[in-house]
Amino acid sequence: TPWDVRLFVSEHNPDLLLTGGVEAYRSLNEGTSWEKINGWGEYYGDVNYKLHADFMNFNEFTDQNGDNFVTISNHGGLSITYDNAITNTNIGLYDLNVCQYYSVSTSPKNPKLVFAGSQDQGLQRGTLFGEATANFEQVISGDYGHNTFTQKGENFWTVYPGGWISHYSDPAYGYLDASYTLESNN
Questions:
Q1: DSSP 10-22
Q2: Among 26, 31, 88, 100, which one is least packed by beta carbons within 10 Å?
Q3: 3 state DSSP class of 152
Q4: Is 133 exposed, middle or buried, given 0-12, 13-18 or 19+ CB atoms closer than 10 A?
């Protein structure tokens, strides 16, 4: 597979098997039958609870209360499940501290406001306070880069692969309010 994701077998529940590539699959009966956890496109409608595409790793841990949980690593971040991947929570949406960034921009209007375009973890924004780690929020999922501000920080622009350009008229708090796609063979 592209990321060497093989077969995960739970140490605490050997009935649970997970595997993944673009999408993740689970078996609750030692591999006798399998089901897709969710389609990769479902993530965009429910980023808090659906798994993103491109799975990297599955791992199992025990918390301080003795409860077992599994982490599911993918290009959208990191999800956690306590119920055999029946429900999954994306714990990578806030306080993102690791990522592959394509473009980072600081607002000319507010030098503490920073935007970062990342691979698969979307467009992120955060406010810097001293030397502490910034708490970045995922504004929109996907691959974003070539970020820029216009009109002295009043407007913000970013580009998604394929030439989709999106605009934010309230960069600090707002969301996408206009967009267009560049038509080009190159």
A1: -SS-TT-EEEESS
A2: 100
A3: helix
A4: exposed
Nearest to 77 by CA among 97, 87, 92: 92
Q: What is the pLDDT of residue 115?
A: 94
Written as one letter, the residue type at 177 is: D
Q: What angle do CA 159, 161, 166 make, to 5 degrees?
A: 25
Mean pLDDT for the chain overall: 89
Q: Span 27-45, mean pLDDT?
A: 94
| Residue 150 tokens, joined | 């216009």
Chain CA centroid to CA 41, Å: 13
Q: Looking at the chain, how many residues does it have?
A: 186
Alpha carbons 92 and 88: distance in angstroms, whole number = 12
Task: Decide if 78 contacts 92 (C-beta within 8 A).
Answer: yes
How many of the other CB atoms lie within 10 Å of CB of 52? 28
**Token pair of 73, please?**
């690593």
Out of 10-19, 21-30, 66-75, 99-108, least confident range: 99-108
What's residue 1's pLDDT?
Answer: 46
Q: Is 65 helix (H, G, I), strand (E, B) or coil?
A: coil
